[in-house]
Amino acid sequence: xxxxxxxxxxxxxxxxxxxxxxxxxxxxxxxxxxxxxxxxxxxxxxxxxxxxxxxxxxxxxxxxxxxxxxxxxxxxxxxxxxxxxxxxxxxxxxxxxxxxxxxxxxxxxxxxxxxxxxxxxxxxxxxxxxxxxxxxxxxxxxxxxxxxxxxxxxxxxxxxxxxxxxxxxxxxxxxxxxxxxxxxxxxxxxxxxxxxxxxxxxxxxxxxxxxxxxxxxxxxxxxxxxxxxxxxxxxxxxxxxxxxxxxxxxxxxxxxxxxxxxxx
Length: 264
What we know:
Layout: E1 13-16, H1 22-33, E2 37-42, H2 45-58, E3 63-66, H3 72-86, E4 91-94, H4 109-137, E5 140-145, H5 158-178, E6 183-190, H6 196-202, H7 209-219, H8 229-240, E7 251-254
Parallel strand pairs: 1-2, 1-4, 2-3, 4-5, 5-6, 6-7
Helix pairs in contact: 1-2, 1-8, 3-4, 4-5
């Protein structure tokens, strides 16, 4: 059967859990260009409003939802509202990830709970709300944006790596649980991506020798050049579309070859 790969997500209802800026925004924009109706979460209100203004030019039915993914009640209220607004979600894209560089013994209880809630629990909570409709319709697609740190990491990433590793493991189990219901679950593990957050981190280094050393380290981490937010969006589009219809439970290493390098 010949498939139409020109308007890959026409009519699909998508929820990108955080897309006011960064990788989530790039995914939301590309999906809207491909014909999807895109619901977008975010807590940066000015950025969310600007992003939705641009998305609605492509997909007028798309909407933004202000929420903090670390707060259970806001997640549940937003999920309920999305179900009321759209009647269901066909594609769930869990894009969130907060990270504080520290060792495990330096992480206090509040930060531990927040990191687990944002990075791991928020995606589970939304899945619990949207999967029943997917099962009923015998169609669904869940895409997690995880991290290379879930597979191989560096000092100071203990909590972050742990939450992203949990995302990977849960996605594999979910892929098995829901395959008979027509639901696919896959995970993207980006390496170094020149995202808005990375640009913010670069600016924390003073211009001059200190920043130059940091940039040199970034560029030697992988064989290819650092990735872009559009690279992640393209990979997400592949997983969201029928081009990947025979793929589930997989981890896609989008890392410029960093995970095949023996030494830094």
